[in-house]
Design brief:
Largest sheet: 8 strands, mixed
CATH superfamily of the largest domain: Bira Bifunctional Protein, Domain 2
Protein name: Histidine--tRNA ligase
Subcellular location: Cytoplasm
CATH architecture of the largest domain: 2-Layer Sandwich
Shape: elongated
Oligomer: single chain
Family: Belongs to the class-II aminoacyl-tRNA synthetase family.
Number of strands: 20
CATH class of the largest domain: Alpha Beta
GO molecular function: ATP binding; histidine-tRNA ligase activity
Catalytic activity: tRNA(His) + L-histidine + ATP = L-histidyl-tRNA(His) + AMP + diphosphate + H(+)
Helix content: 25-40%
Number of domains: 2
Strand order of the largest sheet: 1-5-6-15-14-11-7-10
Length: about 500
Amino acid sequence: MTQQKNKKQKTFRPKARIPRGFRDRLGTEIVAEREMLARISAVYEAWGFDPLETPAFEYTDALGKFLPDVDRPNQGVFSLQDDDEQWMSLRYDLTAPLARYVAENYDALPKPFRRYQVGPVWRNEKPGPGRFRQFTQCDADTVGAPAPYADAEICALFGEVIEAAGISTDDFFIRVSNRKIVDGLFEKIGLEGDESLETRLTVMRSMDKFDKFGAKGVALLLGPGRKDESGDFTDGAGLDDAKIETVLSFLQSGPENTTDDPLAVIAKLLGDTKSGVSGLEELNGIKSSIPDFDARGIIFDCSVIRGLDYYTGPVFEAEFKSTLTDAKGRPVQMGSIGGGGRYDGLVKRFKGMEVPAVGVSVGVSRLLAALELKKTGEAATHGPVVVLALEKNQMAEYQKMAAELRTAGIRAEVYLGGSNFAKQLKYADKRAAPIAIIQGEDERNNGEITIKDLVKGAELSKQIEDNKEWREEQPAQFSVKRSELVVSVKKVLAQSQD
C-alpha cells in the first residue's frame, strides 16, 4: 500500500519562467551595449571623471523616497530585511548611492568630486511595453560645484556622450529648464508652503506627462483625475480652472508651441516671483558658459520637469528631433534618451549642510533601440567563426585552428556537440557564424581546408531556384592550403563588411 502511494506522488518541478518586468538578454545586444558603454566611458574619462562602483543594495533610509510614478506599496523599490532587522533596498538609480558615498567619505574626497558609474538599477513599478524593472544606467556627476558653470559643463558633456554612442548631432536636441522656475510657478498658483507638498508632487508628476498626454490629458491630471485605456484611474491634483490654465500656459511656453524666446515668455509669466527670477538667471548663465551654444542642439524648454523629486535647479533631457520608424514604417515614440539635473539637497540628508551637485544619466536601453531603428550603429555583429569537428581523433587540430584565428583577433570556436555534419552547419547558422571551417579526411590528406562563407551563401540561396545546381556548384565555399587559414578568413570577413 505504501509503495503504491509513493508511486502516485509526483516530483515537484518548478515552472521555468522569468519574473514579470524582467528579461533575459543574449549575444549581439550585449556586445553592442558593451561597445557603446566603452565609447561613452571614454568620453567621461577624457573630461576628467573617475569611475566609481557602489553595491546593488543600500540601506532603505539612505536611498530616500524620490521615485516618480510610485504605484507599489513599498514606494517603488525592492526591499528585504537583513538579519540585524535593518531594511535594505536594491538601488533605483545611481545618484542616491553617490550621495551616500560622498557623505561617508566627504573629508577625503577632492571638491569638486567628479565620478561616472555604469550599472543596473531596479524599480518595483508596474511593467509595460519597453518598461522593465531592471535596466542599465550610465551616469556622470560633479559634486561640490555650484550652478551654473558645472551645469553648463554637464550639458556640453551630455551632447558629446550621445554623439559617442552613435547619434548624429543633427538627430537629437537637449531640452533645458530649471526647477526653480517650477518653484516660481508654485508661488504664482499658491502652492509654496509645506502644507502643499503632496499637491506639488502630484502637480509635477502631472506636468511631466505633458509630452505623453498633451494639454487635455494633463488638465485632467491637474484637476479631477484621469482614466487610462486600461480603465485604471489616476487621482488628480484637484486644482481649480484658473490654476490649471496657468500651469498649461507654463507648459506651452516651449519652442514647439511658440515662436517667441522661451525665456522671455517665462519671464513675462513668472517675472514677479523670487524663484522664477533666480531660475532664469541660472539658465542665462548656462547659455553664456557654453561655446557654440546654438550649434550643440541645446534649447530652453520649461516644460521639462524630470520625474525625480530631488532636483533643485537646472534640469535637462535629451530627445530625438523626429519620430523614428520600425521595419514596417510604423512610428515609434522613444521618449527621453537620457537626462539629469542639479540636486543640492541629497548629500545634505546625511551631512546636515547643503552640498551642490549636478549630474546626467544616459538611457542605455533606449539609445541601443534607437540605433537599431536608425541603422546608424555599427554593422550587425556576427557570431564566431565555427570550426567543424568531423573526426573525433582530430580534435587537437581543430582546436589549433581556432586558436590561430583567436590569436589573429578573430572570434572562433570548435563545435563540440557531435560529428553530424548537417547539425554542425545548423549550429553555425544559429550562432550567426560568418564562416564555417571544414576539414574532413579528404581535405586533411591534401593539406587543405574548406572555407564556407555562410553570409554569402545565405545571399546567393535567395537567387538560385534549382537545388541540384546549388548542391553541385557550392558557390559560397572554396578550398585553400591549411597554412592560409588566417589570411583567407580575414579576406572573407573583409568582403562581408563591404
